[in-house]
Amino acid sequence: MSRFDECFKLVLNIEGGYSNNPADKGGKTNYGITEGTLNTAYRAGLVGHNDITKLTVDEAKAVYKANYWNACKCDSLPVPLDYLVFDAAVNHGTGGAGKLLQRSINRCLGTNAVAVDGAIGPLTLNALASYLGRYKSDCTLPVELICHIFLLERVELYNSIIAKDASQRTFIHGWLNRIRKNYQAIGG
User: Fold this and answer.
1) Model's pTM, two decimal places?
2) Is 146 helix (H, G, I), strand (E, B) or coil?
3) How much is the pLDDT for 23?
4) Residue 164 to residues 16, 82, 145: CA-CA distances in angstroms?
């Protein structure tokens, strides 16, 4: 089983199936994929239809791989940070996941080494490598630390969402449960 397949199973377990909660700003979703994302995937040829209620797990997997895993360059990230960034991309979009990663890197380095623009590209990956390079290659502490900071950044993001729109408070238990599952998945 590939690393993507492992992470996909974890995220799918969190996302579940079809939902049409009127308070959800993403609208109708299935397997964590919004109707808008499915329409984009359909136009890109990733799936053969754009009916959110008929989305299959295999179709969701194709969308996850192209739109979240590959877009966030998760293959270039250390385990288990790859999973956390991937899960955040599904939940917050790739730009949101990128900003969380960039803020986490900056906190670990104690500087503004990388711009918080949401794009996971060479500058972000080089800043991450610079942080990790400060430690011996067999030391797990830097990866553990950035993973914990990343999850704290997500909690702060959820709090800011609620501060901007109190109607989103209805999702806090689910969001915090997601963070708990992330901690469990990384051995926290």
Assistant:
1) 0.95
2) helix
3) 73
4) 27, 29, 29
Are 151 and 84 spatial neighbours (Cβ–Cβ below 8 Å)? Answer: yes
Provide φ and ψ at 19, rounded to 5°: -145, 140
In our burial notation (b when 16+ CB lie closer than 10 A, e otherwise), range 94-114 reads beebbbbbbbbbbbbbeeebb
CA distance 8 to 6: 5
**Distance separating alpha carbons of residues 84 and 82, to the nearest angstrom:** 6
pLDDT value of residue 85: 98
Whether the CB-CB separation of 98 and 72 falls below 8 Å is answered with yes
Query: DSSP states of 122-145 as a string?
Result: HHHHHHHHHHHTTS-TT--HHHHH
What Cα–Cα distance (Å) separates residue 182 from each residue in 58, 87, 138, 179? Answer: 23, 8, 23, 5
Taking the mean position of all CA atoms in its chain, how far away is CA 68?
Answer: 8
Tens digit of each residue's pLDDT (9 = 90 or more) over 98-129: 999 999 999 999 999 999 999 999 999 999 99
The packing angle between helices 141-164 and 122-132, to 10°, is 130
